[in-house]
Write a structure and sequence with these properties.
357 residues; globular; two-stranded parallel sheet
Length: 357
């Protein structure tokens, strides 16, 4: 709770009525208990910087305006620029959904979030938050974390026979083309969620985005959505899918994050920008409310904490990370199916319900 919620939200607990529970209160894991103090120190030390964030908003706007301007004369360049614009707007949205109240207030953050997520990316912030927070709390837990359940298209563990497909053996070949449709899937799920939950404000912002795309050449409009999906997918998949998959509950929050997540070491300024802070995935999962531009400094502190408690903080270069991701898909393309049960079966075949990727 405290890792995902703001200080303001945590303070509301003091106003709630105390009631007796039928079950004993959970006892914190020793590692989690030791981590509580460092988490509070990091949250207090690394605050939001409105001017750093403003520069990020300007970059997104410049990419969008440049892509729109070039759409009629340089379709390929426009498609790439708009795809990058949507990807970076996605990172900004991710940032705002995790953050505590900023120096310019919640009203400002709310409007920026609706523009970045709803108008530019075409997805519902509330839909994404519900999905993503579950991923943070029980990362890589089969049957709980929606981000690892992509059956019957991609398999990260041996499937039960009735959930298997004949094309699984090719998944390590088709996964990259498949990543282009990620944003298409998220947009469709967001439309469904916003309509079913009467999110009229979000639908209005999404409509503005589709009006923007409608005036673009069709190839640029469709192409930019596909490119943005690919740009996002190659970042968000590799930090978790090759790590430990939990079938039973991991009692320690900290150990869960360290075993199921890795950082990616970017070799140059462009890839640092391209990854949008997602390269510091372990640090982000342990202190999710920390701004991404502070994560390099936070990573150093967390690596020291991990060493003190004899835990592994995983961080690898880009080539190693992509190689491990490919090997995970290749290995599970050929692993034998079985007759048992799969706790993740409830996620399979239901991709447009608003749950999962």
């Amino acid at each position: 709770f405290f890792s995902l919620h703001s200080d303001k939200a945590a303070s509301m607990l003091d106003k709630m009525k105390t009631v007796e529970t039928e079950q004993p209160a959970p006892v914190p894991h020793p590692v989690d208990k030791a981590f509580q103090s460092i988490r509070q120190e990091l949250r207090a030390e690394f605050k939001r910087d409105p001017y750093v964030e403003l520069r990020w908003y300007i970059v997104v706007a410049v990419l969008g305006l440049a892509g729109t301007y070039l759409a009629g004369s340089h379709a390929l360049a426009a498609t790439i620029l708009l795809g990058l614009c949507m990807q970076q707007a996605g990172w900004v949205s991710h940032e705002l959904l995790h953050q505590q109240e900023g120096p310019w207030g919640n009203a400002w953050d709310h409007q920026v979030l609706q523009i970045m997520a709803g108008t530019i990316c075409g997805f519902s912030p509330r839909w994404w938050a519900e999905k993503h927070n579950t991923h943070h709390v029980r990362t890589n837990h089969v049957g709980i974390d929606p981000d690892i359940h992509n059956q019957p298209i991609l398999y990260l563990w041996a499937p039960v026979k009735h959930m298997d497909t004949h094309f699984r053996k090719f998944q390590h070949f088709y996964f990259l083309p498949l990543y282009f449709v990620l944003m298409v899937s998220w947009r469709l799920q967001s439309m469904s969620y916003a309509w079913r939950h009467s999110k009229y404000e979000t639908m209005a912002y999404m409509a503005l985005g589709y009006l923007w795309m409608w005036q673009l050449p069709l190839a640029v409009a469709v192409g930019s959505v596909l490119v943005s999906g690919f740009f996002i997918a190659i970042v968000v998949t590799v930090s978790h899918e090759s790590e430990e998959i939990h079938v039973s509950k991991e009692e320690s929050f900290v150990v869960n994050q360290l075993t199921s997540t890795r950082d990616v070491e970017c070799p140059d300024p462009f890839t640092e920008f391209f990854w949008g802070g997602m390269q510091y995935q372990v640090a982000h999962h342990l202190v999710p409310t920390a701004p991404s531009y502070h994560l390099p400094a936070i990573k150093a502190r967390l690596m020291e904490f991990a060493r003190e408690h004899k835990l592994e903080y995983k961080s690898t270069g880009m080539l190693k990370t992509f190689g491990d991701h490919y090997e995970t898909l290749r290995r599970n393309a050929h692993v034998a199916s079985h007759d048992g049960t799969d706790p993740g079966e409830k996620f399979a075949y239901v991709r447009l319900s608003g749950d999962g990727q």
